[in-house]
Amino acid sequence: MAAPTKYDSTASAVISAIGGAENVKSVTHCATRLRFQLNDRDKADKAKVESTKGVITVVESGGQFQVVIGNDVAKVYESIVERENVTASEGGGGGGGIMARLIDLVTSIFTPFLWILAGTGLLKALLATAVAIWPSFAATSTYAIWFAAGDAAFQFLPAFLAITAAKKFKANQWVALAIAGALIYSQTVAVIEGQTLYAFAGGGGSLDFLGIPVTMPAYLSAVIPVILAVYVQAKLEVLLDKVLPSAIRNFVSPLVVIALIVPATFIVIGPVSDWLGTGLSNGVNWFWGLSPAIGGAIMGGLWQVFVIFGLHWGFVPVIVQDLSTQGYSLLTGPLFAAVLAQGAATAAVLIKTRNKDLKGVAGPAAISGILAGITEPAIYGVTLRLKKPFIYGVIGGAIGGAIAAAGGSAAEGFVLPGLITLTATVNIGSFAMQLIGTGLAMVIAFTLTLVLGFKDIPSDVEAVGEVVDAGDVEVGAPVAGTVIPLAEVNDKVFSSGALGHGAGVLPTSGTVVSPVAGEVVSAMPHAYGIRTPGGLEVLVHIGIDTVKLDGKHFEPKAIQGSTVARGDALAEVDFEALKADGFDTTTLVIITNAGEGDHVTMSTDAVVDGAADLITVVR
């Protein structure tokens, strides 16, 4: 087996912290988040997950335990599925209310090919830029080939949707693809020489099926018809599996399903879906017609709030439907201001903060947000964490979004709103208003963050002006007992060093004490996080997998937010009872935020008491 990668370490740590693979009911992922449905939420240690290297934050919404990873989420997800004995699921379990289920449905169906749409949308945006600079390029075959490469995925979107919808609804994927193929074929048959079914291609031709009138809407790029068709297919397949003998089921079931669902889609599902989709599109246009500036201010100001709660997925079907019916979506115009404003606020934090760790997060997050439109690292790692910069970004996004929308700006393709995709708005509405709105949004967010400022995260020099020794930090033993090197601890997350440097102690007393002086930033019966005045973060974890005990055999002595001196009691623990219940009592002390310039050394003592130095950190 290949050596573990950093993604494997993150995956292993996350699964351990949420209670193990057996606590995972289902897992899927979107553009930046792992989305877990857990069997028992109480077994998940949120603080431990958030302290894992590679994790930005944890969001709990719609019945899901969402672990925000960022751009590497697909690689961590792959490791979870392949190495952690977690079964992949295209759905999120279907829990929660109507909105939660809707978001789960959309993320399950659209996420697998979202980056394909974004990539091909970017290609079309670059072509639009080329044509704006060199108009005659649009008449060349080179342009035509590249345009086909960029447009094909969207044109044949029903095929993509058929595959992912089939996985979501547990239908036969190949049957679903055949159904989608019939919808697409109905639009392309007219270009085949010698064919006479031209009514298919025109949309709305005079057709009938067994005497039943058929109205043909446009199915290329359509979203709703194929999803509903595959849903009905899944229900029909369940029924056929019950009534058909196994000897003929494999070929008779597809025969019956395709023979029934395709006409049903042409006669009922397609027209109803077209009515619904057109209604949604017309509703957006109607609202924009009342006041585009207000619509733009709402979308530009609240878009990142929607992202925080995962509600932005609810707009994806509407945007795609708009693109399929009119070639653009007015909802997308204000999003560039919303996204780039957060990136600009993050860039201002990069300049203003004195915290080196925060600078290390803000730099890549600003680049990712401004250029590529991926803002979750910026939001969770920087602006929302500091609060005020996020608000400044919302203000800038609202103002800039209102200006862009007032100019009728919109993107022609499905793109992630960033600087490199801004040219997707060249041909719709006023591009000048889009540039003014987006530029002003960035200036407002950047200037407010830089001038009005924010409460910075303390570094090694305290905000109160008291200089703290940034040299040696002595970390004591959390409990008296026998020292166990970290590599020998019976837990692969700890022993791998994924959570940081440290050591274990096999306890001989029942009092667990704080190994450093500082603030208790997290407190659970079995685990405590302490931050020293100099910013060193220390985790004390009592026993292995003891989160499963829900506090049984533990008597906490410290609470979150309290200040402790080194040697103060964190908890009284009945270690004999833990052993009787089959738990490893090894108590760990881990330095969770040691930087590249820090040197961590371990004591060579084999036995320690509660006052002994166990770890030395030279910062």
Describe the model:
The chain has 619 residues and is an alpha+beta fold. It folds into 4 domains: 6-96, Gyrase A, domain 2, CATH 3.30.1360.60; 156-288, no CATH class; 291-452, no CATH class; 472-618, Glucose Permease (Domain IIA). The protein is built from 20 helices and 20 strands. It has helices spanning 6-17, 46-50, 73-83, 98-110, 114-133, 141-155, 157-169, 173-188, 198-202, 224-243, 246-290, 292-309, 316-326, 335-352, 356-372, 376-386, 388-406, 431-452, 492-495, 575-580, and strands at 24-29, 33-38, 57-61, 64-68, 207-209, 212-214, 472-476, 481-485, 501-507, 511-513, 518-524, 527-531, 537-542, 554-556, 563-564, 569-573, 587-591, 599-602, 607-608, 613-618. The strands form 5 sheets. The chain has an 8-stranded antiparallel sheet with strand order 15-11-12-13-17-9-8-19, with no helix packed on it. A 4-stranded antiparallel sheet has the order 1-2-4-3. A 3-stranded antiparallel sheet has the order 7-20-18, with no helix packed on it. A hairpin with a 2-residue loop joins β3 and β4 (64-68). α4 crosses α7, α8 crosses α11 and α15 (356-372) packs across α16. Residues 90-94, 188-199, 201-205 and 460-470 have low confidence and may be disordered.
Overall morphology: globular
Helical coverage, percent range? 40-55%
Mean pLDDT, all residues: 82
Number of strands: 20
Largest sheet: 8 strands, antiparallel
**Strands in their spatial order, largest beta sheet:** 15-11-12-13-17-9-8-19
Q: In DSSP terms, counting alpha (H) and pi (I) runs of 4 or more, how many helices?
A: 20
